[in-house]
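Researcher: Predict the fold of Amidohydrolase-related domain-containing protein.
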Amino acid sequence: MSYKPISRQQNFKFVWLAVPSLVLGLLFSTYFISKDGISQDVGIEKSVFLDGLAQCRARDYNPVAPKHRTKNPRYKLGGELPTPPVLIKNATLWNGDGHLSRNVDILFQDGIILKVGNSLVDNFNGEVIEAHGHYVTPDSWPAFAGASDTNEMSESSTRPYLRSLDGFSPYDTAIRIINSGGVTTSLVLPGSGTAMGGEAFAFKHRLFPSNRSEDMLLNAGMEEQDGPKWRWMKMACGENPINNGRRKNQLPESRLGLGYLFRKRFDDAYQSLVAQDQWCYEAETLYKAHSKKAHTKIKSRFPEPIDDETMIALLRGKVRLNAHCYESYDLEAMIRLSHEYNFKITAFHHALEAWRVAPLLAKEGIATAIFADHWGYKKEAYDSSVKAAQILSNAGVQVVFKSDHPVLNAQNLIYEAAKAHHYGFDADLALKAVTSGPAERMGQDWRIGYVLPGYDADIVIWDKYPLAIGAHPLRVFTDGYTTFKHVDYDKSIVQDYDSSSIKESSHVKVDKPNAQASAVTYHNIAGLVHGPSATWEKNSVVVVENGVVTCIGSKCSAKGEQIDLKNGWVIPGLVAASVRLGIEEISSEPGTSAGKISTDDLLPSADGIFVGRKFSKALDAAFKAGVTSAISIFKSSTMIKEISDSTFIKRLVADHFQVDVSAPSNSISSSLAGQITTIGQNIGKSKTGVVAVDVDGAAQIYALLHNLPINVIIGGAEAHVLAEELAKKNVSVVLSPTRCTPSSWYKQECLVTGSSPTGYSLLHDAGVNVAISGPEDNFIRGLIWEAGWIVADLPNYHDLSDFEKAKHAASLLTWNVAKAFKLEGLVGTIAVGSPARFVVYDGIPGTLEAKVTLVVDQDLVENETDQY
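Model: Structure tokens for Amidohydrolase-related domain-containing protein follow.
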């Protein structure tokens, strides 16, 4: 049938014919509506009205955790079959409340812990794990970014409606790596680049057969009766959102502007909240008056503005707020804001100055999610303290440790607790800070953070005391499923095991010699590791005259003043390689730097060194940690970076230089010919120097090895792939960082923590000279622990004597560094005729039990070595 348009005249007639019918229809409708006594306003659909009314009645309702939990709704997600029962026998259980129990049995099935006690089951059909006294703990819980979609940096700085779930990839390699560190649950927060980053989501570290991100959610599969389903949110103050505003020439460009943005956004949300409350008042009033016909009386549906929904939930107390704020006055500003708009702050993240206002945080009931000793990388992080955990805890503030993954690899979250314990934080509180503490702050301590009946079967079996250096999980259970099993599990779980904790430091105080003493004899030494030829001998001493070593060993005659080292361990002064000590104080503050090189000319970095520890916290912290020498380099906008070795005020050499090809713009693979030509020209300027290349990828290393006379590889995440070739060409490797992650394309072959063999062992066994360093100066004071971690991962670790362990750890930061950079005789050993540079520990160097008691750098001797 063809379409025939109506003419203008026909259409005109049609309209007039239709009008009487329309009027009649309206009159007819009005008659029947009026007859029933109902207003002519038809209102909204009944289902829409009832849905709004339900939301009104749920405004002030928060679910209560179940008292007797008998199932874990997550275990059967994704079509998985029920798990058989598992019985862990004879474990040393260190629970989330810090309580330690020995010879404990733990029974769990279908994702939930059923029983915890002694001799639980006689006849058992299921898997039996004989723990042989190994430590068992609850899961750890950090905050980390599961994908790179962490910040929405477009126009507005306040985007509370964004969701981290939308950027979460279940295939992120980091998830499996982190789980291997004993972490079974993570709160994935949006980034801190804007004032309001958005809503956070908590995930379990277990990928389901469905391959869905939503099945990994902590709250997945839960019904209302299964417990409270809290929501979480991220905000940020201070440098990050301010610097973002400055880059875009928009608000916020200052803390004043940031304060206004916060208030404006909260005010908008508050107006939406008021509108909801007003609607609820009208709806309830109409419902009472008209019952089933109330929906015909109301003029609009329940207001649900998408931009304000998360903020309204926060104002109603249904969202737990995590605020990224460092400095004390930023913390105060956020607290003022919370009082103005009546919302609660659950935890301040990073919060490295929180110790300054500990009583205020205790009064407010706000926790702190901090690092143990990560500091100094920007102005906000400069006035931190390694004593923060105990200062805060003593004031009544709950302390939890975070990873800020990938800044710090969340796989090693337990290491943050271990370091804090080294600095004086109570061991039980340190464990709580990565188990029950964060679980409580997330509102989840009724289901995770403890090994108790009714809790999720998230359990970790450790290879040693969890706060010892290099502690690794042997097996990790998430929802009762084995999500990680160490390659050496079967061998490790049955070996003889010492379940004692690490020894507490006795806080040994060693005297320093009189400033006028020309000769000093250091005696009462437990172990003297003077160099690569050192062997243990009883009654060793070190004699120093006018800042020079004149005798070492057990056959020396005492001279001058006698200094009792109180059974301490002595190793050469540590050498920090490829760092910026003395040249740059805060990496993000150009005003604290000696500048950078913008040409390919070789410039002596020693000319830019600051004078003395008095004006540098970085130098002071490093020196008190036993670092007496540093190979410091300028920043560079070109590939060539001159490096020179120096003590903190003395220049030793000036003809070393470093090539940086680690950045994508300097990738060897992108412009190989031009890069090599430039490098070759600069090599020609140095006759006796060392060529050090900062590079990670095996492909890049291979290209460089076959085209340049390289002496040192710095970084070396994939260097183990070419271990044999590096050994043949006599190229040293400075691993930095020592515990690598596959964080870039050129680090995919990196062997992460817990691998067997390790990247270091492959290089060492091939005959490569290996040293270590840190990627940032704030890691320098912990370098000796990095060395100890490498030693703890050696296949023959349990066969080594204490002296051999100390010697191996010392080599990575002393004579191996000197060998790599051709500095033998200047640094790296304690040798007769050489300047006296050594460090004394009250325990085995490389362990967390040991603390520095004395640092000697020729005439400079320091015994006030506490870190702050």
